[in-house]
Write the structure tokens for this entry.
Amino acid sequence: MRAVTKVEGTAYPWGAKNVDTDVIIPAHWLKTISRSGLGRGAFETIRAQPDNIFDDSRYAGSPILIAGDNFGCGSSREHAAWALSDMGVVAVIAPSYSDIFSGNAVKNGIVPVVLPQAAIDRLVEVAKTNIVTVDLETMTVTTPFQDRFTFDLDPFRRQCLMEGLDEVGLTLARDTQISNFETAMAEHRPWIENRSGYAGTIVEGDRRT
Amino acid sequence: MASRPQTLYEKIWAAHVVERRDDGTCLIYIDRHLVHEVTSPQAFEGLRAAGRTVRRPELTLAVPDHNLPTTPRVDAAGSVLPIADKESAQQLDALRRNTAEFGIDYIDATAAAQGIVHVVGPEQGFTLPGTTLVCGDSHTSAHGALGALAFGIGTSEVEHVLATQTLLLQQAKTMEVRVDGTLGFGVSAKDVILAIIGRIGAAGGTGHIIEFTGEVIRNLSIEGRLTIANMSIEGGARAGLIAPDDTTFAYLKGRPMAPKGADWDRAVAWWRTLATDPGAVYDKVVYLHADDIAPSLTWGTSPEDVVPITGVVPEPTSFADPSKQAAAQKSLDYMGLTPGTRMQDVPVQHVFIGSCTNSRIEDLRAAAAVANGRHVADGVRALVVPGSGLVKRQAEAEGLDRVFVQAGFEWREPGCSMCLAMNPDKVPPGERCASTSNRNFVGRQGPGARTHLVSPAMAAAAAVTGRLADVRDLMETTA
Ligand code: SF4
């Protein structure tokens, strides 16, 4: 994963609330077996409307998206993060996110910045004509004016973003701890491992009509 | 011996901590992992690219559901029929190949046990109380109905679980949603969860794990509890929990993948200790009373847009929050509704009975009771899609399929179907559907489709009347 410390550039001054994952990437785009190319389907239903923000030449290719409460609600589809990534978005700024989306965002090098509604309102105004800067070093969002909004991010997530860490690799290094847990589990909750039925085989169809 | 009283969530969490990091993040062991075709290909691809294996393949179960057409899967001669949509076929193929390559149990589309992941898990006894269970699908929350800490994950997390059988998580806050009293005539589990979401809002549970408690929840069957926990995510909570009790144990006993013999006895003994201790404190508490819950439905494009069926389309100005007013106006434009219209006067062109929210045997029985002896109204297309092959067989054994077919409903093969616009079952643009699924988002059932979320009985009532209807009026006239 590519590391990200600072995101600077134009921002989609959107501010919409409850932007759900079906809006970010409609289900028919989910039939892909690859992670790339989903930018073409991003915000398809919004883009079908005339004068939409995403096809506005002033904002095209913006690395930042400003949205309202509960961004990314709905399904767990990581395709939403892949689609944003593919369209060039590296940071989203919103008052709140669905829990699953913010996790997915971080895993794909997208910074989910949380700021209060008042800051969002101000940034939406500024972004119509000016650039916005998200800095993970200083944990601030700034504008060319005097605006300076600080935000919080879980330290581990911040580190993963700034160093572009591979979480699977990090956890695999904890193999001893996991194995110890499994040994204890085999003793205290043996039924977890002694799963009966269909063990180790592909369950083929029984050719019903 | 814990001295401080603990909630059900805290107990399950504590039993699964592999390691606690300095920043409070925990490495949590995952007992059960369900996999379907849509959110897994990139995870298997990631494993392959990094030369990694699946740590505990026997703790994962795969079943195709989202993409599968719900038309017959084999012809009269028993040959498997091809899937017309190339991309769907490719994704379904990938699941079969990936599970074979990594040694994961896989239930084929032509197997009787196939169905929607969230129907299959409980039905097979794969879902167990006190387990951590994940799936690359947000409605994994459903499994919380059996007292499993179950939640949806993204594809990177699917890869993480496959490789390590763990997830890095922050402990969530807890929220009790307690529903006291006794449900009124014609009121179902679906109405209860719609009422809850209407009350707490679509983001009300964000950052929380909901535990559903109270007399109403206790008296529900596992099917009803699954409907409730399923839609925790529509209330913003990643997971919903219901304490396991005798109803849970009776449901699980003898299921193919449930513990057997001495394992069963030990498991039940442990499961009984999981219920929230008296005096344990939740971060948030919400009370509802059954007397205040009527057969309900949604009018807008957020699951929080709930009204009783006796209600009217609301005026956007009736909401205090100005941004909600704007959202309501947009919803109404999309839904093609005028404020003040009685919900019961709104005609529908489609009815969908199915999805992991409402496609189990009880749901089909409730719908069939309303459909029995009636006929689908002119101009309405009504689909009944059982949640699994086993539900389908059971329904056929009870003659429910004949009731539906005689009433003019289509009787289909199991899958996600019209719940999401990913397979051939879609609602055309501008048309309206009474649906037993869980999401009424813009475009969810197809571009431009208008969705009203309802219970199975209410869906059947809409089918036979051709409009959104109060099922109680029809039930009163059922002999
Ligand atoms: S039925 Fe609908 S909500 Fe349930 S798993 Fe399938 S697509 Fe998701």
The pocket of iron/sulfur cluster is lined by residues B 65-66, 116, 118, 137, 139, 355-356, 416, 419-420, 437-438 (CB under 6 Å).
